[in-house]
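new request in #modeling-help
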Amino acid sequence: MKEAKYSADFNNLDAIRDFVGEAAEEAGFSGREMYSVQLAADEACSNIIEHAYEDIPNGEIEIACKVETGQITIIIHDHGKEFDITQVRKPNLSRDLSEREVGGLGVYLIHQLMDEVRFSSSKKNGNTLTMIKRKSGAL
Amino acid sequence: MEIVVKEFKHCNVIEINGRVDSSTAPQLSQTLDKVCDQGHFKLVLDMTGLEYMSSAGFRALLATQRTCKRYNRGEVVLAAVPTRIREALELAGFTELFKSYDDALSAVGSF
């Protein structure tokens, strides 16, 4: 298990993508799968910074990557406001340009890019987002 | 991220290089807003040098497309979209909202 801690700042997204990218590479993921994992981690952390830590200074994001045969588990932890991305409404993608919704897109992408997405929250332990990606062909 | 704006006779070409995420997307939005504020609504976004784009970047593209298409005065088209970024745009349902060309030259020629 690899672990890292970042301050809740958009400027750290580069480092966060590098961190999960390295783990995905270690798991033997293809370039395409690695990009998916990096994009999902970026979208999740962007949401935490924007929503969970809204009006809360000095927030921190802890990320753990667990590499197992054919899959990677990314656990993202924060102590901000409860923001359950599994409850975010799916944006209506079929609408035309003028009606296209701007919100919810990052969360929608996370669900599309990852095989499993779970969220748990408690007053004592904060918020935990668990995302699993399986290597294509491995089940 | 680095942005280069080039003014042509019939359209503007905007090269977006590097990575666009929540940290850099505001800069992209500002640049695109400025181009529109100057009365340019036919835009080619050249993504040859684009390495990464998250939904923060997609939102900037969407807002600009809305501005440009208003009153039928123009349009945003994409050029040389890298494979991974195209796949993400497809997942987000964005490919229907933007015409896409293999390279900037063909995109410029479309105007």
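bot summary: The longest strand of chain B covers residues 12-20.
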